[in-house]
Every structure is written in C-alpha cells, then in structure tokens.
Design brief:
Number of helices: 1
Helix content: 10-25%
Order of helices and strands: HEEEEEEEE
CATH topology of one domain: SH3 type barrels
CATH architecture of one domain: Roll
CATH class of one domain: Mainly Beta
Largest sheet: 5 strands, antiparallel
Strand content: 25-35%
Structural class: alpha+beta
Number of strands: 8
Length: about 150
C-alpha cells in the first residue's frame, strides 16, 4: 500500500514539473514571436535631430556673459564661484554649505569668512554675507546673488 502511495506522489510531482516546463517554453515562444523581424535603418536625412544647446546645462547660457563684478572672476574664494546647497540652523550653531564648480564643499558657520566676506546671517532660503565696506551680498538656493546696503 505504501509503495503505491509513493509511486502516485512521485508520478504527480513529475507530471506537474513537466506541465510547468511546457508553460515556460510557450511563454518564451510568445516573446520571440512578438519581437520585430525587420530592422529599420535611417538615412542621414531621417536621423533624429540633435538640439543645439546642452539639455543638461540647466539655466546657464552658453555664452560667457554674466553679471559678475570686475575682479570677482579671478578670486577663487569669491561668492560668485559658489552655489548655496544647504542651510542648517540650530539653537546654538548654524551652518551653510557652499559648493564650487569642481564639487568641493565649503561649510561655514556664523561669523566665519569666505575670502574677504563674512557670513553674518541666514534665513530659510538665503545666506547673507557682509563685505568690508559694510554692504551685504545675499545668495539664495537659485544661485541668485544680489548686493544690498541693508538686509
């Protein structure tokens, strides 16, 4: 009696494996049949158009015209060479993070200097620096830099 039970169980297991294998092959055959058999070749006139501007450049223009004041381009520690990427404000300490074109991150706390300008205040969306002549430079997350007499 036990012999027949074992025989039927193994027979059922073998049959189920064969039926699963048949289904698997039919799925492969269907995917092969769905693939196109002809390859489309494009001539030079039919090729996709390539945009004249770089889509990865963002809002930067392709020209070198900018509103950077004279003398600021040569100074590597100029605020115009950085982008504001982070502001962390706490009860005791507050920090900002700036990144330059090479990807180097500079982290400043209040009253620290970036070249000749000093970080004096920060808000949710911007950081305020004081220049030597008591005017202010404000940078925001959109990389908009503006100079002001007051903040």
């Amino acid at each position: 009696m036990n012999f027949f039970k074992i025989f039927f169980i193994t027979l059922i297991l073998i049959y189920s494996q064969v039926s699963f294998a048949d289904q698997h092959e039919s799925v492969e055959e269907q995917t092969i049949e769905q693939q196109p058999t002809e390859q489309v070749t494009l001539t030079e006139d039919e090729e996709d158009d390539v945009p004249l501007n770089d889509p990865f450049a963002g809002n930067e223009s392709g020209s070198s015209i900018s509103n950077i004041p004279d003398g600021e381009e040569e100074n590597e520690m100029s605020l115009y060479n950085f982008k504001l990427v982070g502001i962390i404000s706490g009860e005791e300490n507050s920090y900002i993070s700036l990144v330059d074109a090479s990807g180097e991150v500079v982290t400043l706390s209040l009253s620290q200097y970036l070249g000749e300008i000093k970080l004096v205040d920060m808000r949710i969306h911007e950081a305020i620096f004081e220049k030597n002549d008591k005017s202010y430079i404000i940078i925001d997350f959109n990389n908009q830099i503006r100079e002001a007499n007051e903040y």
